[in-house]
Amino acid sequence: MNQCKSVKSVGDDIQNYINANLNADLHSLLLKKPPFSEVTMAEIVQQIKGKKVAQKKFPFLNKEHIVFPPNLNLEQASSQSTAEFKAKNLKGRTFIDLTSGFGIDAYFLSKNFDEVTLLEQNPELLEIVKHNWEVLGRKANFINENLETFLEKNAEKFDLVYLDPARRDDHKNKKFLLEDLSPNLLEIQNKLSLISDQIIIKLSPLIDISYLISVLDFISKIQIIAVKNEVKELLVFITSATKPENVEISCINLESKDAEFNFNFKEEKTAVSEFSEPLQFLYIPNNAVLKSGGFNLVSEKFNVKKLHPNSHFYTSDERLPSFPGRNLEVEIIDAKQIRKGEKFNIVSKNHPLSPEEIKKKYKIHDGGNAYLIFTQTQKGKIILKSV
Prior knowledge:
Layout lengths: L11 H9 L5 H5 L10 H17 L13 H6 L3 H8 L4 E6 L6 H6 L3 E7 L3 H14 L4 E3 L3 H7 L6 E4 L21 H11 L2 E6 L5 H7 L3 E9 L2 E10 L8 E7 L6 E4 L2 H4 L10 E5 L1 H6 L2 H8 L2 E2 L7 E3 L8 E9 L9 E6 L6 H8 L2 E13 L2 E7 L1
Parallel strand pairs: 1-2, 1-4, 2-3, 4-5, 6-8, 14-15
Antiparallel strand pairs: 5-7, 6-7, 8-9, 10-12, 10-13, 11-12, 13-16, 15-16
């Protein structure tokens, strides 16, 4: 990753060249002779890639003299919107990020703490973060060390410990079970509890919530964070001082109008759904709610009825603007009413045909404002159209 180190030491001429080529064809650019002796063209192209990622993913870094790491580090870094959300209600005197990476989460969390420590085992990546924080006017204690080594010798306690374990092995294959992550959370959870009463762990959105609760001690809360209805991460809150009686599940859909949906994990086991054929309005929970598995609680808390045990669509005679997801006024239609060439937003759940198969069979296309929903009720397959 040395390709990033030299870029930070150069002047405005290289910065200007990077800015002037933000929309250039990067493959063609790589074939050119570098215009500067201090840096290679590969280094320049990497900075162009980083700037383009920053424009959308973390715009606060879209500044002059910010240095960007290789693509994998950019991909693994949190977005600005998720990082800002995490920092909203957390504050104290001392904070440590045990796996700082590119430092996006740490940057926003650090605003609410007096003393900040960033631990990172990759020396080049840590140098990049240190440089960027200097550009941004933010101070921290930067430690280049392996997490397990740090935990063995550290005697300090922190108000908040944050970590985001690596979810890829040496061959860059994705891993999801806690024992396969780096660090192995099952091996270090007791050591973590010795250095803080409040620990937050960022995990893959694919990990199973029931599994998490069964293997990690002292979980008080799990936040499922989506951005524009795409689930990005799970945040696990561990309060090591006292064992919580229950685990609070929070479903958040950022950059949307959806309200948070919160419940206690044990509640879902005793909740009961009512069922109905489609009424005037159909409700499709957002993906954070679907990830939570609180399907019966959605029915109870919003007084809506499910179409089928496996569909996770809900219905009622009244529109509920506060429902955490999409609400549509619908009607049941016959397949013969679908006209060739029409455009729909196609949804298929608990139905034998996929959206692609539906488009091919009925010769329709994606797009438009209307929804076409293929699903099942307890009486069998149906097609619903938004009105």
